[in-house]
Specification:
Strand content: 15-25%
Structural class: alpha/beta
Helix content: 25-40%
Bound molecules: zinc ion
Shape: globular
Number of helices: 14
Largest sheet: 7 strands, mixed
Oligomer: single chain
Order of helices and strands: HHHHEEEHEHEEEHEEHEHHHEHHH
Length: about 475
């Protein structure tokens, strides 16, 4: 997730007095899914560790995507690679007919945060990427859940279609949005996913809607001392624009976030710069709020161009909808999480987590393996956007958040990379796989549940017709050597 939602709850470490008795409480099919995940535990862990070590960033996840797709194929899934114009996007399907249950897996890393699986900061590859959002676990865990369902289908115990989505580039352009544009989610009854976190939750929180765009200014170069009167500075236009944006901050709702990076702002002082470029995001709790602010930002760009006597241009790159929560789905998931029981950690794992907290100056609370009760949806989500938001407007979406790292440390940082490459992360991944597989058993077995989930989805959508922010044209694939 782009700037991950991190819930800074100060909780005690997992208590070993909780008993893990899922196998005695779960139905036969759910028990079979738990056993399946345990049977494949080593393979899934290996897959996750492999992707962790590759640490490939958005749309360059060739080895990571291949590892997941190859595993799915070896498990008997029909795999379509390179879908939606992205070489690293794929689908893996098993079974036929309705219902169609989808499950998504991400696998992109973040640049510059390479880290060894150790509790103090030390890069595995200097300046390399790292899984600071735990997407190595995300992809492998979701695929493990899909495999568990496939095995029940092979035994004739479930009917329908299970489809795994290998979704690249969550951290940049939002691969899922391009996959959605191709209609790849249109026939899905319910879709699931999970995300690494600092506590276990059946997610009831939305995420921020956002629009990601470039603002460019084109002026006229001139000698900065000899004839500046003949020049028109693109940087003047950019400065006027950013000044306008920063004045606008006073006049937006508190839930709005605007942030930018200057990508190009002249080369040398003694040339009037003819080109300037800003990369900017506007976020709010709802897409409608983003649109209001974005309309004003576009006016500011126009005005700034006029002030400086330069051309201005705004180009949308991508954007996310806010996540549409589905309470019925979350309640179903919650029951399965409670059946599974908390994640139990060893003293070594708790010490590992506390060491990270100590190094980062956070309270040394260890790890939170508890199953938290279902929470009420907050009016305004905490900071963060995800392309899962877009999918949640196309198909009802259920998300489980699972502990893979300690609280009180920086997300998208080295500590999350460290935990994602060792047993703390692995335990979270296996818990996610089990809880998702059990919830899919409910969805396959219970048509009334699917109807209820769809009814809530339609009510929350209130007739809105989904339309992504994506510009026309293919995904912006990176230049690669
Ligand atoms: Zn993420």
């Amino acid at each position: 997730m782009k700037i991950k939602i991190v819930t800074f709850l100060f909780t005690v470490a997992a208590c070993s007095s909780f008993a893990q008795s899922a196998k005695t409480k779960a139905s036969p099919n759910k028990t079979a899914t738990i056993q399946s995940v345990e049977k494949h535990q080593q393979e899934l862990t290996k897959l996750s560790d492999e992707i962790w070590a590759y640490a490939e960033t958005a749309l360059k996840e060739h080895k990571s995507s291949k590892a997941l797709a190859d595993y799915a194929e070896a498990q008997g899934f029909t795999v379509k690679r390179g879908v939606a114009g992205m070489p690293t996007a794929f689908t893996a399907e098993f079974g036929s007919g309705k219902p169609v249950i989808g499950i998504m897996g991400e696998f992109d890393a973040l640049p510059g945060i390479s880290q060894k699986a150790m509790p103090t900061k030390e890069a595995l590859v200097p300046n390399g990427g790292g899984h600071g959002c735990g997407h190595n676990l995300f992809g492998a865990g979701s695929l493990g859940a899909a495999v568990a369902i496939k095995e029940l289908m092979q035994q004739g115990k479930l009917k329908g279609t299970i489809r795994f989505y290998g979704t690249p580039a969550e951290e940049s352009v939002g691969g899922k949005i391009y996959m959605a544009r191709e209609g790849l989610f249109n026939d899905v009854d319910v879709c699931l996913d999970w995300h690494p976190d600092v506590e276990n939750n059946a997610n009831m929180q939305s995420s921020q809607a956002m629009v990601d765009f470039i603002v460019e200014f084109k002026g006229k170069a001139a000698h900065a001392a000899a004839d500046p009167r003949n020049g028109r500075s693109a940087v003047d236009g950019m400065e006027a624009f950013l000044h306008g944006v920063n004045m606008l901050r006073e006049h937006v709702r508190p839930s709005v976030r605007m942030h930018y990076a200057i990508m190009k702002g002249g080369d040398v002082p003694n040339v009037v710069p003819e080109y300037a470029k800003v990369w900017m995001w506007v976020r709010d709790s709802k897409r409608t709020g983003v649109e209001d602010v974005f309309a004003r930002v576009k006016e500011i760009a126009k005005g700034a161009g006029e002030i400086a006597g330069v051309e201005s241009k705004v180009t949308i790159q991508t954007g996310d909808y806010e996540l549409l929560v589905n309470k019925k789905g979350a309640e179903t998931l919650q029951k399965n999480m409670e059946t599974l029981g908390p994640i139990i950690y060893t003293p070594e794992e708790i010490a590992f987590a506390k060491k990270i907290q100590e190094v980062q100056g956070g309270e040394q609370t260890g790890l939170d393996g508890k199953i938290h009760p279902l929470k009420a949806t907050e009016q305004h989500p905490q900071g963060g956007s995800t392309d899962v938001g877009d999918i949640s407007w196309i198909v009802p979406e259920i998300t489980v958040l699972v502990t893979t790292a300690p609280a009180n440390t920086a997300w998208h940082g080295w500590s999350v990379v460290a935990c994602g490459g060792m047993s703390i992360g692995h335990k979270g991944m296996l818990f996610a796989a089990k809880s998702l597989a059990m919830t899919m058993v409910d969805l396959f077995e219970n048509p009334q549940l699917r109807t209820d989930i769809r009814k809530e989805f339609d009510e929350r959508k209130a007739g809105h017709v989904y339309k992504s922010y994506l510009p026309d044209g293919p995904p912006p694939l990176p230049m690669e050597k």
